[in-house]
Design a protein that fits this description.
Length: 145
């Protein structure tokens, strides 16, 4: 049995979900509720919701449960810093950044995270799968298309 995910650091909020499709909207709504109170612009909140949706959907489709979503919303001197979201699952295979054709019906999750997040990465969790993290800065805006 994998090691349990360690307790979150102070100021980090955690949601643990089963690896089922219902986890995706639950994580999206929870993260939106948490981050609405953190001073994110409407655009930044929209980006965060999209990226949470993609990261959790990838964990459901390609990973194994349970899925743990952590959100850290730091502030210094009353100014909100970037929001960091980390999605843990117990599957050791790491995600792959792919570029798919315009007509593909999937395969864009990591590419969206790569394009829209202020920063992102993935780390192996010793004996317990992986964690995909990304950050969204408070002033993030949707890119022009």
């Amino acid at each position: 049995m994998p090691d349990p995910v360690p307790a979150p650091a102070p100021g980090v909020l955690r949601l643990v979900l089963d690896a089922e499709t219902s986890a995706v909207p639950l994580a999206r709504h929870w993260s939106s509720e948490v981050c609405t109170r953190r001073g994110l612009s409407a655009d930044a909140l929209g980006v965060l919701q999209l990226l949470v949706t993609e990261a959790v959907a990838n964990a459901v489709e390609h990973g194994r449960g349970p899925i743990t979503v952590e959100i850290a919303c730091p502030a210094a001197d009353g100014v909100a810093g970037p929001v960091r979201v980390t999605v843990h699952d117990t599957e050791p295979r790491l995600p792959v950044l792919r570029h798919v054709g315009a007509m593909a019906t999937g395969g864009r999750g990591v590419a969206l995270i790569d394009q829209l997040a202020t920063g992102w990465g993935v780390r192996e969790e010793r004996g317990a799968g992986k964690a995909v993290w990304f950050e969204v800065a408070p002033g993030t805006t949707w890119p022009e298309v």
